[in-house]
Amino acid sequence: MTLLAILVGTVAAGVGSVWLAALMAFAMLARFTQHMLSMAAGALMATAFMHLLPEAFESEAGAHELFAMLLGGLVFFFLLDKAELWHHGHEHNNGPVGHGDQAHHHGHGHAHHEHGPRSGGWAVLAGDSVHAFGDGILIASAFLADMRLGVITSLAVLAHEVPHHIGDLVVLRATSGTSRAALIKVSLAGTVTALGGVVGYFLVTQLQDYLPFFLVAASSSFVYVALADLIPQLQKKLGFRDTVAQVAWLMAGIALVTLVSSLAH
To answer: How many domains does one find in the chain?
Structure first.
């Protein structure tokens, strides 16, 4: 009975939050693409700095080890980004390409760089999966302690994941090319919450000590994507009005995650 409750709670929190975020994100994305990128950057940074990292550092884990994990995560996602760029470059350089095709590829690459993240999709999915696994363990722990606490925790996780998933979907929409592909990828990452719940049900006492490291690993991916992929796209010369709007949407992403996280707690 408890395991069934954990499965229902983790699927509702992990996948339900993605679909709720999709309803909000894609409704606004068509009209406010640049603004949504600003909001995504704010949401990802706020999730890392205002929610995941404070929770990790409130644990018994040592600060030195957690900072080492954060640094290692940033370096790992930098290398992942390099590998992804090298792979795409290798693909484009293979095979005979005519003069017209070269112009097309050059134009396509330039447009992609200007209007969407060059990469970052894998980093977002990896961070999401690690974060979702940690959420699953948290939900399992709550259900094992008390059934009502498990329900409240599942709802809290669902609520605070929505603004963060809006950021994920915006990034993956730009890297995948379609809203449907982005939704499928983030939904699959969300199902890892159920895996974390099942593993947590059987190994909750052993895994409890590793939760802070899951949180920091997820944080490193969100910080990397925000600072390496999203913020550089926003750093271009704009008029005063557009600059104010850009900063306002960035702050809105931060405020939304902070508000929802505080309400969820």
So the answer is: 1
